[in-house]
């Protein structure tokens, strides 16, 4: 290609890549003239601001205030509200008293009801919950207001469930699904969630069977900015991340759609999940889903959504959501194989293909794929070694993470250009055989093991079309080749960014590998470039620029604050105390308490946390008069071959959490506050944790333990209050502005430990 054409094609490819991101969500524009029957992001933001004034987890003072606000807003719309309260422990043995908020819009016919779902509790202990899930609550409140303004009676009843204690183990959803009479009437759930504070909202299906009917109805509803694909849900099902909707699917076989955003993941469950940092475009995107779906599903037959068949689905610009049955997967793959074989025969007949050059064409692909794979795989390990403070960002995604993604993407492109520059004597048609073979292997593998990703065959067909053009023409139209490259860019560019954002920078290897694979799909264009070495140098230069930018943003500031932790632990058995922390790199705030520690933290149980984090530092602390819980044994008897012990553990100070660990004695059954723990949990529980009680109103914890009578049961009781920074017996200063409480762990807490032994 001429230099002029090279520049234009690069510009067009860049524009297409940009379009793959920019077209995925609406653009927020502040306005005072939004129609009353339209969703207003500004009106929704008013709710977010009210909800996210303070941490409002179960048992926190602001929890009741947020609940009262939501109830008042629903009542102002003319809806009758009710509260459902009760203890649940869910599947994770996380006991809490949940208080669900319920309202209902009657429909004209008696059929299955549509349920709108989000949760109003924030994560303990410092999250403000603006995105997770104040944004979901606000979306539903504003959507219902707009819907009611038209005074139309829907065909189906619409149930509004603003659940509680989602962050503690999906407890509010468990309470509704298993104990509320309305649950059996639900035909479909629309759940609004967040795992970050920005970016596009992904639609994820929850179904026990096939998805084809749900996809058909979702498409018919006409959401303007669908961001969904069957690969993401296939991956989602493999991860230990559940939402309230999971309870509906598992316990009642009720299907539904999740809508959740994951960008800016570093804000998730932190005090920076606030009103200011919530992306306005993202909130508008949530509204763009709700309004058409609310209209459609409130009048659809919700009893006819089950299907035995699955669809492959994905979104691309202009076409929105594209889907086709799983039944097409193998025929499409076989067709691609047949086309490839035919093109090979045709190419050899035309003497455009030569066996020696084809085999040589595998070398640059293998070299670049291997180098980029190794770089991607070890990149996070190297970054943690260079910047140990990254270990304290438990999200696995740093504030400068976007710089790292850009840097390693450009480095991967540079290595690909460098590799193919070394083999520039091979004709492009011969070079193209290796990528086609590789992509056909990938498509065959996903068809067999990950059929949700079978839409990968679409760019492969486009690559085969390029192969046909190159066999027939020595000087093909570059703009035709750019057009045929669009499926690859539109489908894979979002994935290159999404994997390390959603799963952490440890998944940078997914970005480097996928960048390489996408490069091979664009080889019909890149192969013509005469200046591959210059483009390789440009890619390296951009890598260096973004790495330097990442370095200068590797520190912590007021807007990019370092997570930190500090706890006071009092062992009430031997009357000793320690300061402990989860930090790998201490800061000036907690260093005076922990610096020079030689004590081992293995003496402590790993307190429940999202990533099973353990203490990293401990040091002797002064003894303080912290009251231990009162333990009363009300029953101790033999029942057949088992021993039954009944205990009541009562706080003697204001507390937020009680955790109980056991030794290796098998437990036949356990009840906590009259809630029986699942026998499957007792059988398969990992480690020694028995249960966690997230306490409201300083309630007592009652335990009924049934275990083999010949066994000696030991319990380790941890009782915690989140008041270390405000307790009058301590003088721990407030954190500096450049630090925030570390999420996912017990933090800023006073912890007492007590051992119980039943011989």
Any overview of this molecule?
The protein is 40% helix and 21% strand. By secondary structure, it is an alpha+beta fold. The protein is globular, with a radius of gyration of 29 Å.
Number of strands: 23
Which overall shape is indicated by the principal axes computed on the Cα atoms?
A: globular
The parts where pLDDT drops under 50 for at least 5 residues are none
Class derived from helix and strand content = alpha+beta
- Give me the Rg, rounded: 29 Å
Query: How many helices?
Result: 22
Helical proportion, percent range: 40-55%
User: What do the pLDDT scores average to?
Assistant: 94
Report the sheet with the most strands, covering strand number, pairing sense and barrel closure. 14 strands, mixed
Strand content: 15-25%
Report, as a whole number of angstroms, the end-to-end distance. 84 Å
Entry summary:
The chain has 759 residues and is α+β, with helices and mostly antiparallel strands.
Any chance you could write out the topology, listing elements then pairs?
Blueprint: H1 3-22, H2 41-51, H3 61-76, E1 81-88, E2 94-105, E3 113-119, H4 130-148, E4 158-163, H5 171-179, E5 186-194, E6 198-206, H6 212-221, H7 230-238, H8 244-252, E7 256-263, H9 280-297, E8 311-316, E9 320-325, H10 329-349, H11 355-360, H12 362-386, H13 401-421, H14 428-431, H15 433-449, H16 457-472, H17 478-503, H18 508-521, H19 523-526, H20 532-552, E10 562-564, E11 567-571, E12 576-581, H21 591-594, E13 617-620, E14 630-639, E15 642-650, E16 657-662, E17 669-672, E18 675-676, H22 679-684, E19 689-694, E20 701-708, E21 713-721, E22 739-741, E23 749-758
Parallel strand pairs: 2-19, 3-4, 3-5, 5-7, 10-22, 11-23
Antiparallel strand pairs: 1-2, 2-4, 6-7, 8-9, 11-12, 12-13, 14-15, 15-20, 16-19, 16-21, 17-18, 17-20, 21-23
């Amino acid at each position: 290609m001429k230099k002029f054409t090279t520049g234009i094609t690069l510009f067009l490819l860049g524009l297409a890549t940009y379009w793959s991101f920019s077209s995925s969500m609406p653009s927020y524009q502040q306005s005072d003239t939004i129609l009353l029957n339209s969703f207003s992001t500004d009106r929704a933001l008013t709710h977010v601001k009210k909800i996210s004034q303070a941490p409002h987890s179960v048992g926190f003072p602001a929890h009741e205030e947020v609940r009262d606000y939501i109830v008042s807003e629903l009542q102002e719309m003319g809806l009758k509200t009710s509260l459902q309260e009760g203890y649940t422990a869910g599947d994770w043995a996380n006991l809490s008293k949940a208080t669900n908020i319920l309202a209902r819009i009657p429909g004209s016919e008696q059929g299955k009801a549509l349920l709108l779902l989000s949760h109003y509790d924030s994560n303990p202990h410092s999250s403000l919950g603006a995105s997770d899930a104040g944004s979901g609550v606000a979306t539903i409140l504003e959507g219902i207001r707009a819907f009611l303004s038209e005074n139309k009676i829907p065909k189906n009843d619409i149930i509004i469930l603003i659940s509680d204690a989602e962050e503690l183990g999906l407890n509010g959803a468990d309470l509704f699904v298993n104990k509320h009479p309305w649950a059996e009437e639900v035909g479909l759930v629309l759940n609004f969630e967040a795992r970050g504070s920005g970016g596009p909202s992904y639609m994820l299906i929850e179904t026990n069977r096939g998805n084809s009917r749900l996809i058909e109805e979702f498409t018919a509803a006409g959401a303007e900015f669908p961001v969904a694909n069957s690969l993401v849900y296939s991956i989602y099902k493999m991860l230990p991340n559940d939402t309230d909707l999971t309870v509906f699917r598992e316990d009642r076989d009720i299907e539904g759609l999740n809508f959740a955003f994951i960008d800016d993941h570093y804000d998730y469950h932190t005090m920076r999940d606030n009103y200011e940092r919530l992306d306005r475009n993202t909130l508008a995107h949530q509204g763009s889903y709700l309004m058409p779906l609310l209209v459609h599903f409130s009048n659809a037959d919700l009893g006819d959504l089950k299907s035995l068949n699955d669809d492959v689905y994905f979104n691309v610009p202009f076409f929105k959501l594209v889907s086709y049955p799983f039944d097409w997967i193998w025929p499409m793959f076989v067709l691609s194989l047949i086309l490839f074989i035919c093109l090979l025969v045709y190419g050899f007949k035309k003497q455009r293909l030569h066996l020696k050059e084809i085999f040589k064409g595998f070398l640059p692909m293998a070299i670049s794929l291997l180098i980029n794979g190794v770089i991607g795989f070890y990149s996070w390990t190297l970054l943690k070694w260079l910047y140990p403070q990254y270990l304290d960002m438990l999200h696995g995604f740093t504030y400068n993470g976007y710089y790292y993604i850009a840097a390693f993407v450009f480095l991967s492109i540079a290595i690909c250009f460098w590799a193919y520059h070394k083999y520039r004597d091979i004709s492009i048609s011969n070079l193209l055989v290796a990528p086609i073979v590789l992509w056909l292997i990938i498509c065959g593998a996903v068809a067999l093991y990950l059929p949700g990703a079978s839409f990968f065959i679409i760019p492969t067909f486009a690559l085969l079309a390029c192969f046909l053009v190159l066999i027939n023409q020595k000087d093909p139209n570059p703009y035709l080749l750019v057009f045929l490259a669009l499926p690859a860019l539109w489908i894979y560019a979002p994935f290159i960014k999404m994997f390390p954002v959603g799963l952490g920078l440890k998944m940078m290897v997914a970005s480097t590998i996928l960048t390489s694979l996408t490069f091979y799909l664009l080889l019909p264009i890149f192969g013509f470039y005469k200046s591959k070495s210059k483009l390789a140098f440009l890619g390296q230069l951009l890598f260096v620029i973004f790495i330097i930018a990442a370095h200068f943003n590797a520190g912590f500031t007021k807007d990019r604050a370092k997570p930190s932790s500090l706890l006071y632990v009092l062992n009430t058995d031997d009357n000793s105390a320690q300061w402990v922390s989860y930090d790998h790199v201490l800061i000036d705030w907690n260093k005076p308490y922990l610096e020079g520690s030689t004590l081992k933290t293995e003496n402590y149980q790993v307190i429940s946390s999202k990533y099973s984090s353990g203490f990293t530092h401990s040091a002797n602390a002064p003894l303080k008069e912290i009251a231990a819980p009162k333990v009363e044994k009300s029953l101790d008897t033999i029942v057949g071959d088992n021993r039954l012990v009944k205990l009541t553990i009562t706080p003697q100070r204001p507390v937020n959490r009680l955790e109980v660990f056991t030794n290796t004695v098998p437990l036949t059954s356990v009840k906590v506050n009259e809630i029986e723990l699942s026998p499957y949990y007792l059988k398969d529980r990992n480690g020694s944790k028995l249960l966690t009680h997230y306490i409201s109103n300083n309630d007592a914890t009652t335990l009924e333990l049934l275990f083999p009578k010949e066994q000696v049961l030991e319990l380790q009781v941890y009782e915690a209050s989140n008041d270390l920074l405000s307790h009058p017996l301590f003088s721990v200063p407030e954190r500096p502005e450049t630090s925030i409480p570390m999420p996912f762990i017990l933090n800023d807490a006073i912890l007492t430990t007590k051992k119980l032994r039943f011989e």
